[in-house]
Design brief:
26 helices; two-stranded antiparallel ribbon; disordered N terminus; mainly alpha
Length: about 675
């Protein structure tokens, strides 16, 4: 298990009721006999059904008549009030007003398994086994028998969801034209470095690009700042802490002797400090929407988020190549590794996709999944590519040539991915998940070991609670049918001794014990888990949704990437989720945006504003770069330096532009009031 990195089952931290398979198999004899008679009378119909259900084309008139006369009226009368699109309710994540909904089921599993009357949550609920539906009053025996007979014949359902088709308003010609005409969709190329009009001022190529733009606009750079101001500036920028009095004194003396040499020494010292990773890791955590809880209506704790935080800090301190940094966060679980330690680091890196706000109280599981995927697409494209592809969830992008099909091509990639964030499965949290167990021993420092005797005690307590739970469930079923007697008196289902609230408390106690026992290994030592993602068992394509609505599916869209940013055909294998291909495509040197977006972020944190002042919008509605040649120069240098963030920071802070004073000049201010061309430092 440790070596293979298998995923913990979803039940590990779930509040779902204990298995009731034993009681499901013990069908009441009388009900079984009635069902048998019903099946005999409908033998011809049942024979035409298949285990996997009857296709829409094969539904006979007898099937339709049986469903319309026996099944739909029962659903409308007893179920639609809490489980239908018309009422806007999907309690337990269950929707019963469509064929797809009744088969998919809800939080607790598949609703109906055509041809199998021994499985499915619908039968369990109407038999008052694991659930009690409709609440308070069970269905009549003949209604239950009809539903059993309907499932046995293959659950024929004429309520087929109509599949539409949407034709994009964005054509292939539009996409090709954008690739040729718009700067952000063209791969960066190394520009010619300008010849400086003042040969004494520049310290490196950055200064030559800045000086050229100033000269074009009849501006000149202001004077250098003083030593103390510069040291405070670079210390706060690189490590987030001001210099000490001793450091200020030393630097002032070194500045007098040789400014360039003093700056080089301080730059290297700050980049070597552990505080550098904490400062610059925080910049990344901000855009990666790092938080230690889910936010939204139900703010549940992400107890293992700290692992991703530490991964980011270490990556910046170790100057991990940025292309590796991105690939690990998007598809770390799919990248070949040589050691368990490396694999563990990659698994933790995928926490990037597991973080973020989540509506854990969402009743509809399909809506939750759609929103989760949308958030993953939005974050990934904005942070890495500086583009908001999520704008195309409901319609073609209104300003950039990103058709709605591109959104759902990416959605298929994330739909083929399982996300594990591990929130506690208590209270109103309807969407808990398990976590990924790491292949190395690296427990939470706050975790405590549990003795074997204590584990044995918890197991015994859990077994007793489970037996109590099973007994209470059985008594509730009997009470609902008027068959439960205690001390010779008939007991109703509302009796506090067998109340639903009491059963719920017992179930919660079982879940708490399960969670506590699974926090340690067999020897009682704390286990090591992380948030992250894994590839689903079977990759799938997503259906385009008309106006983004789940109830209005259109054509299936093959998994793919954003066309306008792709300068060669990008293929995703039939058995691949596409996540590794996405990560590789994002970090290839031909990608027009990845390097540009990151060097722009670095510039933003050192100068106060990016060369592109809209760092997450490089599209048509974003701002045009003030120094486009400089942006491309930095992007190409970034890639040529093995995607080293520290090398780009070093070149920027050692430029003359970085050491300018922020002093005011009225004449220059009138020409460039926003300081777009960098005639002074921004305060």
């Amino acid at each position: 298990f440790q070596a293979s990195g298998d995923i913990l089952s979803a039940e590990n931290q779930s509040i779902m009721s204990p298995p009731m398979r034993f009681y499901r198999q013990k069908i009441d004899f009388a009900a079984g006999l009635l069902s048998f008679v019903s099946l005999l009378s409908l033998n011809a119909i049942a024979l035409s059904g298949q285990d996997e259900g009857i296709s829409d084309e094969k539904i006979s008139k007898e099937h339709i008549d049986f469903f319309e006369s026996k099944i739909r009226p029962v659903l409308v009368k007893n179920c639609y009030g809490c489980h239908s699109a018309k009422t806007g309710k999907a309690r337990g994540g269950l929707m019963l007003d469509t064929k797809d909904g009744i088969r998919a089921g809800g939080d607790s599993g598949e609703g109906v398994l055509p041809g199998d009357v021994g499985e499915g949550t619908i039968l369990s609920a109407i038999n008052y086994e694991d659930w009690e539906m409709p609440p308070g009053r069970p269905l009549a025996n003949h209604e239950i028998d009809d539903i059993r007979a309907w499932i046995a014949m293959g659950a024929p359902d004429p309520r087929a969801t109509k599949i539409g088709k949407i034709n994009s308003t964005i054509t292939d010609r539009d996409i090709e034209a954008a690739k040729n005409d718009f700067w952000a969709y063209q791969s960066p190329k190394m520009p010619d470095v300008p010849v400086a009009s003042d040969a004494k001022w520049p310290r490196n190529s950055i200064d030559r690009f800045v000086l050229e733009k100033l000269t074009e606009n009849e501006l000149t750079p202001t004077v250098d700042t003083d030593a103390e101001t510069f040291l405070r500036r670079i210390c706060v920028d690189l490590v987030g802490l001001p210099p000490s009095l001793e450091q200020l004194k030393w630097f002032s003396e070194a500045w007098k002797k040789d400014k360039d040499r003093a700056i080089q020494y301080v730059t290297q010292s700050l980049l070597d400090s552990d505080r550098f990773g904490e400062r610059w890791g925080r910049h990344w955590l901000d855009v990666a929407r790092y938080a230690e809880s889910s936010g939204k209506e139900l703010n549940s704790t992400f107890e293992n988020a700290w692992r991703y935080r530490d991964y980011v800090i270490d990556a910046f301190n170790n100057d991990k190549p940025y292309d590796e940094f991105i690939r690990e966060q998007i598809a770390g679980d799919l990248i070949p590794v040589k050691t368990d330690e490396e694999w563990s680091e990659h698994l933790i890196a995928t926490g990037f996709l597991a973080l973020g706000p989540k509506t854990l109280s969402e009743q509809n599981p399909r809506q939750f999944t759609a929103d989760l995927i949308d958030e993953q697409i939005d974050t990934t494209t904005r942070v890495v590519l500086g583009m908001s592809v999520a704008c195309a969830r409901c319609h073609d992008h209104k300003f950039d040539p990103i058709p709605q099909t591109d959104y759902y091509a990416m959605a298929g990639i994330f739909q083929s991915t399982k996300t594990y964030f591990g929130t506690a499965s208590l209270g109103r949290n309807r969407r808990p998940t398990s976590l990924i167990e790491l292949p190395v021993a690296d427990p939470d420092p706050k975790a405590k070991a549990i003795s074997r005797s204590e584990i044995a005690k918890m197991k015994k307590e859990r077994d007793e609670l489970e037996q109590e739970y099973i007994t209470a469930q059985r008594n509730r079923r009997l009470a609902a049918r008027g068959q439960l007697f205690i001390d010779g008196k008939k007991v109703s289902a509302n009796d506090p001794r067998i109340s639903f609230q009491k059963i719920g408390r017992t179930s919660a106690q079982i879940a708490q014990l399960d969670s506590k026992m699974k926090s340690v290994d067999n020897n009682g030592k704390p286990a090591s888990y992380c948030m992250g993602v894994q590839t689903a068992d079977s990759p799938v394509n997503s259906r385009l949704l008309i106006r983004g609505e789940l109830s209005k599916p259109a054509q299936e869209i093959p998994r793919g990437l954003v066309q306008v940013l792709s300068h060669k055909e990008q293929k995703i294998g039939r058995r691949s989720s596409g996540r590794l291909e996405l990560a590789n495509w994002m970090t290839e040197k031909a990608n027009p945006l990845t390097a540009r977006v990151m060097v722009n972020r670095i510039w933003q944190h050192l100068f106060g504003e990016g060369i592109v002042s809209t760092p997450e919008n490089f599209g048509a509605t974003g701002q045009f770069p003030t120094h486009p040649e400089l942006l491309d120069y930095l992007a190409v240098k970034f890639m040529e330096s093995d995607w080293s963030i520290k090398s780009i920071i070093t070149e920027i802070v050692q430029s003359r532009a970085y050491r300018m004073s922020s002093g005011f000049d009225k004449n220059k201010f009138e020409i460039d009031p926003d300081n777009r061309f960098l005639w002074r430092a921004n305060q």
